[in-house]
Amino acid sequence: MTEISTRVVQAGEEEPSVLGVGEKFPHFSLIANVSVHQETAFATITDQDLRDFWKLYFFWPKDFTALALTELVAFAALEYELSELHARCVGASVESEYAHLAWRQQEPQLKDYAFPLLADTKRELCGELGILNERDGVAERATFIVDPEDIIQFVYVLGLEVPRDAGEVLRVLADLQGAKRP
Question: HEC states along 53-81?
């Protein structure tokens, strides 16, 4: 698989190095929003919680935006297919777990959202992945498919306002798994 990047770099700016295919996905331990109920709203999620699974990590710039909402809903619609592919989906942005909770409580489409929403408030994971938009201080609209050995198999980075196609990401995941089968 080849890395796809549509990042726009202004004159004089250095482009951060996005981790690519064949590289190890970084270790992380982050607070995530996992429920709309205050008493069970938060959990610490680590990369080790997801070992032995294929992982689909997707990042967005800001909560409470129409484009991010549309994408979260599109990934949620793939819950059954991802389960069939023995894959776990994890969303992330630089917003806090409290912002994720408020957003989910406000949006009816997110109330029963099945996937954890990581809060990379220190911007460490985004920085390690090379997807931190330094100018705006937000995550790029990025997608990583990571195999059970935590090796990145697919990277997809789009401009902040460019929507991604969740169905296409699912197709790539299925094709990667087909390529890995004996």
Answer: CEEEEEECCCCCCHHHHHHHHHHHCCHHH
